[in-house]
Amino acid sequence: MDPLNVPNQLSVARLLAVPFFMGLAYVDNVYARVGALLIFVGAGVTDLVDGYLARKHNLVTNLGIFLDPLADKMIITAAFILFVEIPSLRIPSWMVVAIVGREFLITGLRGVAASQGTLVPADAGGKFKTSVQNAAIITTLLALIVTSGWERFAGVDAADLLARGGWRADAARVVGAVPLAMVLAATVVSVWTGASYLWRHRQLLKESA
After folding, report:
1. Cβ within 8 Å of residue 141, ≥6 positions away
2. How many CB atoms lie within 10 A of CB 33?
3. In the prediction, which pLDDT does 209 show?
4. Which sequence spans correspond to the domains of the chain?
5. Could you tell me if 141 and 32 are in contact, meaning their C-beta atoms sit under 8 angstroms apart?
6. In this structure, are residues 193 and 129 in contact, taking their beta carbons and an 8 Å threshold?
7. What's the rounded Cα separation, in Å, for the pair 74 and 63?
8. Could you read off the pLDDT of 51-102 as tens digits, one per residue?
9. CATH of the structural domain 6-208, one choice from 1.20.120.1760, 3.40.50.720, 3.40.50.1110, 3.30.930.10
């Protein structure tokens, strides 16, 4: 079986898309950020497609088992780390440390399990966590698109809208608050599901110690 089959090629493509995603999302330009959103959504679609193809055509390989989750984690962690670098979002770094740290912790647990010949599969909590993280990233990118759009098409920024008062100020407050609220939700869910995952597999940790 060709290790670099179509599903694995899609995983590699997602990995290669990460720097382009980060570059476009960082630029304060509405078109660039729309491009970043399209890359992120496209990565999610290819993730579904490569999994479907691998299962349907029996194209599951060890390389694919390694690449697929790596590509997923790379673009998600890249997005959250990038958000800390964008001052207007005011995303605290501790939230991102908690999100990324959870991924390292669970990956390490699975590595320990694998060294003992035990498979630790993903659970419903992990899938829910991923859904919340994806929702947080998409809504944050949409907020960035809106604020960049204000500057590009109306020549105003959030501070200008807040100064004007009324519904415009309310809209600016909502757009400014949504990213922080969504990343906070992703942080809480990440920590909660990670702690729950460790508790359920505490016996494995005891045995490895």
Report:
1. 25, 33, 36, 37, 40, 79
2. 23
3. 62
4. 6-208
5. no
6. yes
7. 16
8. 888 888 787 787 787 888 889 999 999 999 999 999 989 999 999 999 999 9
9. 1.20.120.1760
